[in-house]
Design a protein that fits this description.
The protein is an alpha+beta fold. About 50% of the residues lie in helices and about 10% in strands. It has helices at about 1-5, 10-20, 40-50, 55-60, 65-85, 95-115, 125, 130-135, 140-155, 165-185, 195-215, 225-235, 240-255, 260-265, 290-295, 360-380, 395-400; strands spanning about 35-40, 280-285, 305-310, 310-325, 330-345, 385. It is elongated and about 85 Å long.
Length: about 450
């Protein structure tokens, strides 16, 4: 999981802020050759090169299982990048440009860091404005820069928005600084440095593996039968008992029992339970969409059937309806409702994500297992090997800097986490900070 958190952003979205003097960056994976071997020494260099946050490094340093997971992610990424390369992905014009930029970027970063450690205190001392301007006047660089700007326009933060003249000037400065730094770094021998080579490969593998995974995402989709089978093997995702409970309560509501009294007795919404399930007045956009759609479809005094939302099963009773002036002066429909909630037993797979129904969580888990099987099969077929027993920390990097006779430089090809373009489970269409009510949307 550690790598997946820090290797998600597109390369071109990272290049711009990362080129500022004295700023560090997260690096990405690279293309490999069949039969690639990643040694324990290489792993130490990879971990230090990624410049993970201290808590992530500490986790790897202290937990052998996390180191194994990290190594497995690296192996899978290498395998996907290798598979993509064998299928000609590296020759695609857009990817070819990004692969070239990745190499320049990593060498430049290595040079910038080296100069800072040598005492350079400003960006001008590393790549002067005169050097940048001279490089940008070279015909070949002008064409390359135009290609870079177009790729940034399509894949950068704006996602297709036009590039203003001011943005173009800023991009030219960042681009020029990288290219000047790359040339100086190569002249200083950094392109042949083992750690730099590993980081170049990391960047390039992320690009190749990400593109391959995006194109093949449909292969990892779980069928309904596969989701059913997963739930059968993992009963914590089974909601039959919760549904049966809410249906029994609904029968009592239909039989005429007091709704508020039943809510006090059975509802699992801590925000409204003691008030008999009272949600007060609310308008559209406040609740999960399935809950909202069901509630606004009811007339005053009506009770819904069983309504499923990302947090559980509800019975809704609308007490009143009204129309109020909104912030823009236009009429806004509101309802005063109560509900009874029976929550799911399973917790979200990611506590930082909005809640989802257990079946969707199970779908994610089933698809994750399916991806792992496919990725491991590719890694076996491509004969990719990554050391799982390696050291992490400052002493490990010093040890890794000593060349190993058993691991020639041309056999080490690193990678990073699983591609980020893998399919995700369905999530609520909207999100907002939670209110006092269980059905209110959760923040993303």
């Amino acid at each position: 999981m550690i790598l997946r958190k820090f290797l998600a952003a597109p390369l071109l979205a990272l290049i711009i802020p990362a080129l500022v003097f004295a700023q560090t960056t997260r690096t990405r994976p690279a293309a490999s050759a069949p039969g690639v071997q990643l040694s324990a020494e290489d792993m130490a260099l990879v971990v230090s090169g990624l410049e993970l946050p201290p808590d992530a490094v500490s986790t790897l340093e202290s937990d052998p299982e996390e180191r194994k997971k990290f190594a497995r992610d690296l192996r899978q990424m290498l395998a996907l990048a290798d598979e993509a390369k064998s299928l000609g992905y590296a020759a695609r014009p857009e990817l070819k440009l990004q692969l070239e930029l990745a190499r320049s970027f990593v060498i430049a970063q290595a040079y910038f860091k080296q100069r800072q450690q040598a005492g350079a205190s400003s960006a001008e001392q590393i790549a002067s404005q005169a050097e940048i301007e001279a490089l940008l006047k070279e015909p070949a660089q002008q064409q390359q820069f135009s290609n870079f700007v177009e790729d940034y326009r399509k894949n950068g933060p704006g996602r297709g928005a036009p590039i203003s003249d001011e943005q173009r000037r800023e991009l030219s400065q960042h681009y020029g600084r990288v290219m000047v730094g790359m040339r100086k770094g190569a002249a200083a021998g950094l392109a042949a440095d083992r750690k730099t080579q590993l980081l170049v490969m990391l960047q390039q593998s992320r690009l190749l593996a990400g593109a391959y995974s995006k194109d093949s995402a449909s292969k990892y989709k779980a069928t309904e039968a596969e989701v059913d089978a997963y739930i059968g093997a993992h009963p914590e995702y089974d909601t039959k008992a919760q549904r049966a409970k809410i249906e029994d309560i609904l029968k009592r509501v239909r039989a005429g029992e007091d709704f508020a009294a039943l809510a006090k007795e059975f509802s699992q919404d801590p925000g409204s339970k003691n008030d008999g399930g009272d949600l007060r007045w609310f308008g559209r956009g406040r609740m999960f969409k399935p809950f909202e759609d069901a509630a606004f479809a009811l007339k005053a005094g009506e009770v819904s059937g069983v309504v499923e939302s990302p947090v559980g099963f509800h019975i809704i009773k609308v007490e009143e309806r009204r129309t109020q002036p909104g912030d823009d002066g236009k009429p806004v429909e509101q309802i005063h409702a109560r509900h009874i909630l029976i929550m799911y037993n399973s917790a979200p797979l990611d506590p930082n994500s909005p809640p989802r129904a257990p079946r969707e969580q199970a779908r994610d888990a089933a698809e994750g297992e399916k991806r792992d099987r496919v990725f491991d099969e590719i890694a076996d077929r491509r004969h990719v090997r990554v050391a799982e027993d390696y050291k992490v920390g400052a002493s490990a990097e010093v040890e890794a800097s000593i060349p190993s006779k058993a691991t020639p430089a041309n056999t080490a090809t690193p990678a990073a986490a699983k591609p980020t373009a893998t399919p995700q489970g369905k999530r609520p269409a909207h999100g907002a900070a939670p209110t006092r009510h269980a059905p209110a949307k959760r923040g993303h």
